[in-house]
Amino acid sequence: MSDDKLLANLVSRYGVSSVYNRNTVSYGKQHLFDKSRETCWNSEQGTPQHIQVEFKVPVKLTAIRIQFQGGFAGKTTNLFDMSRPSQPICPLHPKDDNTVQVLTLPESLQDIARTRIKIQFLSSTDFFGRIIVYSLDFVGHAETGQEDNDSSSPTLVAATT
């Protein structure tokens, strides 16, 4: 869509399944959205792992932009709408490399407004199941009449299981 834009500024809260060695200063979830090339979220070993995000307003997602550390990427990955968490809404197909990847949602799902989502990594390219993400953003637009121009940082929430 022509009015699609990056939506990280519309994230109000987010959480992750785990943090490597519980070292939240070096590897915590705050690094997902800090726009630094030097920092990352690093999960603990084991699967599944996840990132859960809540938006300030309903958004219509067209894609997810994510950058993994090669060798520590999500392998079998699903996207969930947390208003209906029992079934994934679609699989995502990330590559095992260091590039910023754009994971496009199926066209039939791009016109549905969502407030809370979860990206679940059922398996990893790492033998121990660790996931490392350097950056995360969302492509799409706020539901009509719901735009929010606040550029403040998202709120951190405790790790969820």
Automatic annotation (TrEMBL):
Gene3D superfamilies: Galactose-binding domain-like. SUPFAM superfamilies: Galactose-binding domain-like. InterPro entries: Galactose-bd-like_sf. This is Galactose-binding like protein.
